[in-house]
Amino acid sequence: MKIVVIGNGMVGYKFCEKLVAKSQPQQFEVVVFGEEIRPAYDRVHLSEFFGGKSAEDLSMSPMDWYENNQIKLHLSDPVQSIDRTAKTVHSYHGITESYDILVLATGSSAFVPPIPGVDKEGVFIYRTIEDLEMMQSYSKKAKKGAVIGGGLLGLEAAKAMIDLGITDTAVIEFAPRLMPRQIDEAASGILANKLEQLGLKIHTSKNTSEILGDDCIKGMQFSDDTKIEVDMLVISAGIKPRDELAKLCGLEVGHRGGIVVNDKMQTADSFIYAIGECALHQGMIYGLVAPGYEMADVVASNLVSYINDDLSNTPLGVRGGEKAFLGFDMSTKLKLIGIDVASFGDPFINTNDTRTVVFEDTMKGIYKRINISGDGKYLLGGILVGDASAYNMLLQTSKNKVILPPNPEDMILGGRAGEAEGNGVLGLPDDAIICSCESVTKVGICKAVSEDGCETIDALKKCTKAGTGCGGCVPMVKDLMVHTMKSEGKYIRNVLCEHFAYSRQELYDLVKINKLKTYDEVLDTFGNGDGCELCKPPVASILASLWNDNILAKGNSTAQDSNDRFLANIQKGGSYSVVPRIPGGEITPDKLIVIGSVAKKYSLYTKITGGQRIDLFGAHLSDLPKIWEELIAAGFESGHAYGKSLRTVKSCVGSTWCRFGLHDSVSFAIQIEERYRGLRSPHKLKGGVSGCIRECAEAQSKDFGVIATEKGWNLYICGNGGSKPQHAQLLATDLDSETLIKYLDRFLMFYIKTADPLTRTATWLNKMEGGMSYLRNVVVNDSLGIAAELEVEMQTLVDSYKCEWKEAIENPAIRKQFSHFINAPEEKDPTMKFEAMREQKKVKDWS
Amino acid sequence: MENWFYACKIEDVPANGGVCVKYKEEQIALFNFSRRGEWYATQNECPHRQQMALSRGMIGSQNDEPKVACPFHKKTFSLATGECLSGDECAIKTYAVKIEGDKIYINLHPSAPKGELETHELIA
What we know:
heterodimer, A: about 850 residues, alpha/beta, FAD/NAD(P)-binding domain, Sulfite Reductase Hemoprotein, domain 1, five-stranded parallel beta sheet, 26 helices, 39 strands, about 20% strand, globular, B: about 120 residues, mainly beta, Rieske Iron-sulfur Protein, six-stranded antiparallel beta sheet, three-stranded antiparallel beta sheet, about 45% strand
């Protein structure tokens, strides 16, 4: 059977991919015509083109994929006409191909409203890589941008403008709110607020009446007699189905565009199918990629089953096949300029027999709405802005008509105490679709785990394809996998990698009992194979936590993670940054001068860090030992900014100067920082000490925080900043300094011995059975009877501390490793380039 | 065989680690995979963000395939074929290495035989 596909966009490509996957070789002869110069690419992620992705990165499959699958691909060659009687198509370059089946996947073009002046230079549409390339070259002379269209595509275009460096961009929307098809007014308000914080200007209820300027655009005139200055405009106000070919050959099209198809995606001519954005199904044009893929699947499945069932006596084309397209759920979740926006089911429904729960936080820019049936049993739809983490769960709950819990508001408020979220994914029925991109059901995933032995996410991805599209379902897939394995009585633990079948905690104990001192010994004794970048750093960290040897000695240097290997933080361009320890943030004028003169001598960029120290950037690898030689001579020591180890103990100025201070927070911070300096741990550790309840040191955002009280100190633990901020929790109150240090010793040592690799104290606590009350029992009440042991182990580490940079510069063998070229040690990396910025230097941006 | 150039001595390269070798304008990452008794050479530039850094990466194996992880974003590449093992970055170039006495030579010519050298014997 010979199939001709007109259009090589995402859906046209997906059709070919599905056909190849479902059929035997030689069953079909496939010819594809595309009008663009490139094979199909990912239009959904088009804006990443400005974020650094190349056209190749966006490609769905390289050219040789088509060759390898015997698909003839004509690019830059649009089909000009279809002869339905002769069943042939004729292309621009004069190629005539006959077909048995014709698939129209012609997609859509940008809808350009008929505004006077749209043909001026500097006005663009946002659709293809060519459009983007034209925008890119024009943007160099543009300063004030605008986008017509405040819908999904318009906001994507606004993101593209920001990526192009035109941060002064206005978004013009005709409707009274942003994304009118997906979200309600309140949600739109929150979204507009967030976008304005990023520098965009949002104008809703605005109708552009004219584009001003002579040859080039200079401004925009609106119907309300206002105008703005603009020198670059992108129109992204909607799509128009490409149905002109269909119209030309007499196929039925809708009066507002789109090729009319039935549930089998057949047009009025049963030998011709239409799929994707050009198809009009039940009066709907689907402008999203997922329904387009589903349409491609319907046609490919039916053609394959036609051939396999050997229906040679049924005329081809009469029978459409068994599989039908039954409309598509238009629920969407996307990240717009870093902001989560999602809507599902019926987002707007608001009738007498429905109820709506709304959560709105204008401080954080979060809006969540769920619509519930009058009897409180079913979820009908909803909207999420600012935090869409609950999207998958909500979507599945509404799609599968899962009976709601008695307090459905918990579904958007989250478990307020801990992480209790009811049954979660386990409560879904077997046929619930978990991965909507690849249509993988819950039972499909569970079976792949229990019957096909897929016990990692990677294996599941390979076997079921779940999670390979947008990736949004991966947490649910993981929960299902873990649950299925547990229900089969399998012992679940986080083993390091393919080379070690042990968790970090097990390995810590094994290394300790067997007194192993090098990575190779550990690998020989308890591992297999050659190791890798996943097991080397945690094993090296365990060795350092146990024995406190210099991390570059005993052949362990090549087992260290990138930064530890050179005792410095690698930065863009391959230079390093240097952070000397400044305990508690206290520094003498003389030491400040030393940092200044070292920075000047080695031409380093200087910046104050968040941890009250000074970071010196842009050091060449071969300069590091020289820089440290000078710093150490002036009394500095390593700050371990490169290690998974104690970073800083931040302090406020305390009672020595502050009129509110209760105790001397600086002295205590210095004492704590010097006690735990160089301490290697599963992840980095940060501390803080505040001299009174005003908490200027922000101690409650640290792994351990100390706050002065009238009677002593309060100790808080397991706080975190970063992407998931979490306040530290109170461990004990009104402690004297000595007891506080004792508790800290126990807490830190217990963490070092039991946490998984790269797990901060906050996550460690969140995963701990029994939570804070268990941890308090261990640390304060010594419920495990290990407190004394933990204290001794910590004291050993404290007593064996040495500045590792001092050892490095004094040891010629270690020092030799600090050169870029082994055969030209004096030469620096010539590819390293810097530019001037605000009287200092910066590294040249990576492409 | 022509085109071999002298890189450095065996003792210059840390066990199970790499160094960067300069040859004219080229930067080559040279790896001493002592655990396997193997030597590898590749381009020093990581294709992901065009950083001259592979020689500073951790080496190891994945299903017995020798690999290096770029220090910047931990993209991994096969040391044997150059293929990217994590995601879909371009492959890196790999070069032939030979050992004579305590000296290491690299050949940038694509047709130079790779991975066939019995390095143990040559060292002895």
